[in-house]
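Example for tutorial group B:
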């Protein structure tokens, strides 16, 4: 049970222990709370993520079309879109959307509960904070980020077709053929793996910053800002590290 200030390592340990206990005794986790967090953290981000994904696909297709048309290789636009969008652009883009939208909200919510002593009241009532407050929010990030990333991949590919269709006179079936020609299913697995890693990073960052708030609204504001900044930096570094390992 978490009381007082906590280190990042202790937070991760508590989440791991609570997760194992939940697997052994699923009744210890509130399904309603978890679904509510999934809706709050992820479902609300779908329209924004979809719009940005479609726009990113369209813009990237435009850039590739201009460059590849100079060497007569415009048919490579869909296949390049598949690789770039699936493995790089969409996982990072969706993670940053979650960071700006959901990390700040979770950190502020937990910080407010600490300042108003709601967390202390729960502890006094004998309620374990980790499975009651933290695990549902952690699972909300871990489940919804890969799901929204998968939706974002297809939204971005659709955005690419919005350019390839009218400009390159490419039918949807031809676009799909060229996009999948030579593509690897492992690209999707890489995207989902990255999104799971990003979800872990941003979720634990939000929980860590929020749970360590103690004194007043100013500290809530500082924790919220710090959670977003740290999450953005860590996601960027993690993406660079995973990409470097993948290409070596």
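The residue assignment follows.
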């Amino acid at each position: 049970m978490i009381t007082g200030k906590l280190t990042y390592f202790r937070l991760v340990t508590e989440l791991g222990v609570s997760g194992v206990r939940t697997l052994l005794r699923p009744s210890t986790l509130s399904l309603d709370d978890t679904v509510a967090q999934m809706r709050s953290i992820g479902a609300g981000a779908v329209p924004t993520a979809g719009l940005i994904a479609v726009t990113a696909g369209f813009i990237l297709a435009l850039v590739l079309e201009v460059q590849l048309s100079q060497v007569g290789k415009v048919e490579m636009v869909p296949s390049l879109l598949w690789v770039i969008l699936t493995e790089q652009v969409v996982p990072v883009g969706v993670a940053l959307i979650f960071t700006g939208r959901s990390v700040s909200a979770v950190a502020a919510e937990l910080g407010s509960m600490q300042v108003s002593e709601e967390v202390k009241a729960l502890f006094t009532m004998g309620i374990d904070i980790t499975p009651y407050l933290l695990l549902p929010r952690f699972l909300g990030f871990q489940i919804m980020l890969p799901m929204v990333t998968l939706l974002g991949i297809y939204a971005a590919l659709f955005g690419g077709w919005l350019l390839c269709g009218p400009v390159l006179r490419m039918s949807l079936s031809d676009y799909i053929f060229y996009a999948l020609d030579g593509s690897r299913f492992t690209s999707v697995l890489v995207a989902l793996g990255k999104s799971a890693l990003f979800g872990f990073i941003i979720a634990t960052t939000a929980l860590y910053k929020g749970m360590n708030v103690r004194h007043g609204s100013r500290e809530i504001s500082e924790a919220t800002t710090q959670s977003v900044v740290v999450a953005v930096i860590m996601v960027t570094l993690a993406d660079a590290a995973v990409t470097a390992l993948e290409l070596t």
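The CA atoms of residues 53 and 156 lie 4 Å apart. Compare this with the pattern of hydrophobic and polar residues in the output above.
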